Amino acid sequence: MSLPHVVVFGSINMDLVAKTPHLPAPGETLIGHRFSTVPGGKGANQAVAIARLNLPTVMIGRVGNDRFGQELLQSLQSAKVETKDILIDDSISSGVALIAVEDQGENTIIVIPGANGQMNESDIERLSSYLAGADSLLLQLEIPIAAVKAAAQAAQKLGVRVILDPAPAQSELPIELYPLIDILTPNEVEAAHLVGFPIESPALVAEAATVLQQRGVNTVVIKLGAKGGFCATPDEAFFFPAFRVDAIDTVAAGDAFNGGLAAALAEGKSLREAVTWGSAAGALATTKSGAQASLPDRATLITFLQQTDR
């Protein structure tokens, strides 16, 4: 029996990456080590993350009619992501992200939306034809929130699981969006922004998840980096450990996590198994530089799960 497909609705960016000895302080000028252009965008990264795990994957988004747009489409296609309904927007440039990555692997990111910022309810027409029979719809916040909400509504009407990564961090989401979300996957910074208090202890992590569930989310998975994560469903709540690796670049770790999570769920695995897949994919992504280039393939992920202790 063939696996159900997964649909990603979101951003497609070209990442302009500078490697630096440390992240610059306000007003500081640094001499960096290296510069590169790397296909990225949280939506595109998640689509590639899933496709690399051998799940049929569709990307719906926009790029500009420029050189970056052509390269971004080629990168998705090389990962076997379905791209035929990505709109080439003649009115604006492709989205870009300016990324500084320090030697220890931490990063700062500035996103200029470009074509991503033009996404609206007209894009839902292209999305809707792929939702029938889909296992999950993955969403992020690098496109206008009105488009995110419309996509979630379209998925819910068809009984398709909605997984929202609330990144970049925002202090508010429309209250009517929360009940449309089946799984919300913030990191600790994003969760703190959403609930309005820092989550600096296990008790506060659990409290944040409860607050988000009270707003209507079914399941909350809070990604805690090297500390692992916390998962809360209507029936259970549990912390899960991280995989120990030598991290050099964390830029796509969250996207890899969501890709592993969605792929496992599409294969019928339990939520506990799915967060393990997500954790492993996220850990592996930190061991290589770049966004899409760091995302593990299926063989690498399975071998890592079999051979690595936490």
Topology readout:
Elements: E1 6-9, E2 13-20, E3 34-40, H1 42-51, E4 57-60, E5 62-64, H2 67-78, E6 87-89, E7 95-102, E8 107-112, H3 123-131, E9 136-139, H4 145-157, E10 161-164, E11 183-184, H5 188-195, H6 202-214, E12 219-223, E13 229-232, E14 237-240, H7 253-266, H8 271-285, H9 298-307
Parallel strand pairs: 1-4, 1-9, 2-7, 5-6, 9-10, 10-11, 11-12
Antiparallel strand pairs: 2-3, 7-8, 12-13, 13-14
Helix pairs in contact: 1-7, 3-4, 5-6, 7-8
What would you say about this model in short?
The chain has helices spanning 42-51, 67-78, 123-131, 145-157, 188-195, 202-214, 253-266, 271-285, 298-307; strands spanning 6-9, 13-20, 34-40, 57-60, 62-64, 87-89, 95-102, 107-112, 136-139, 161-164, 183-184, 219-223, 229-232, 237-240. With 310 residues, it is of the alpha/beta class. The strands form three sheets. Strands 4-1-9-10-11-12-13-14 form an eight-stranded mixed beta sheet, sandwiched between helices.
Walk me through what this model shows.
The chain is of the alpha/beta class and 310 residues long. It has one domain: 3-Layer(aba) Sandwich (UDP-N-acetylmuramoyl-L-alanine:D-glutamate ligase). It is 34% helix and 21% strand. The chain has helices at 42-51, 67-78, 123-131, 145-157, 188-195, 202-214, 253-266, 271-285, 298-307; strands spanning 6-9, 13-20, 34-40, 57-60, 62-64, 87-89, 95-102, 107-112, 136-139, 161-164, 183-184, 219-223, 229-232, 237-240. A hairpin with a 5-residue loop joins strand 12 and strand 13 (229-232). Helix 3 runs parallel beside helix 4. The two termini are 33 Å apart. The mean pLDDT is 93.
